[in-house]
Structure formats: structure tokens, C-alpha cells
Amino acid sequence: MAVTSAGSATRTIVSFISSVTGECTSTVTPFILGDHPQIAPESLGDFYDATWVHVRAAVSFATVFLILAVVLWRTARGSLAQRLSVAGVVLTLCQLAVGEYQYRNGLPWEVIAVHVAIAGTLVMTIVTVASLVAYPPSSRVAGSLERG
User: Fold this and answer.
1) Residue 108 pLDDT > 70
2) Please, which residues have CB within 8 angstroms of residue 52's CB and are 6 or more apart in sequence?
């Protein structure tokens, strides 16, 4: 179980890094303002540098997530954590595809909204899987939040 707990911690850390780089990329995105014909000024830095970092963080996350989903598939098949990790892999692939689409099509705000919605769902899925791995339902006592 120590390997799975370490993997869960790693997955959570990499997920956090990927989320932070996504937020940083959003803050430097040159959005087109609806009421004005010009591009909004960039606030924090270079969009392409931020995107470069975010893409690498997202691919690192996807790789770690896939490896840990395979570990759960082999060690905890049929468990809620394993099923949610498969859903997380599907969400990750959708997230990567939407991110690529939005980058190649001029960052349409509707697609950015979908990208952010998938990211939020993915973070909730990761936190749930990590908590199920760290605190398996079989080790919990009714009414107790302590680890078994």
C-alpha cells in the first residue's frame, strides 16, 4: 500500500503543478476584448513561454496519471479508486485535446470555458482517487476520520 500512497501523493503534486501552470498561462493569454477591436494587454509575461511550461507540466501529469491508473488497474481492479482513475485518464485525454484545439484556433473563449470546466472536474477526480487510495474505505471506522 506504501507504493500506491506514494503514487497518490505524486499524482496530486503533479496535478497541482499542472493546474498552477494552466492558471499562469491564462493570466498571460492575449484575449480579444468583446467591446474593443484590439487585443487585451498581457498582464504577467510571455504567452508562448507560459504555454511551453504548461504543456510540459500537463504531459508530465498525464504520464504519471496513466502509470498510476495502470498500477491501480493491476492492484485494485473493480474498486472505486480504480474506476475513477480510468475516468480520470479519459478526462485527461479530453483535456489535452481541448487544450491543443484552443491553442491552434486562436483561444476562443467558449473552448477556454470547456478547458477550465474539464480541468475542474479532473482536479475533483484526482483528489477523490488520492483520498480513496490514502484512506481506503475498508480501513475506515464508521464516524471516524482517522486513518485505519
Assistant:
1) yes
2) none
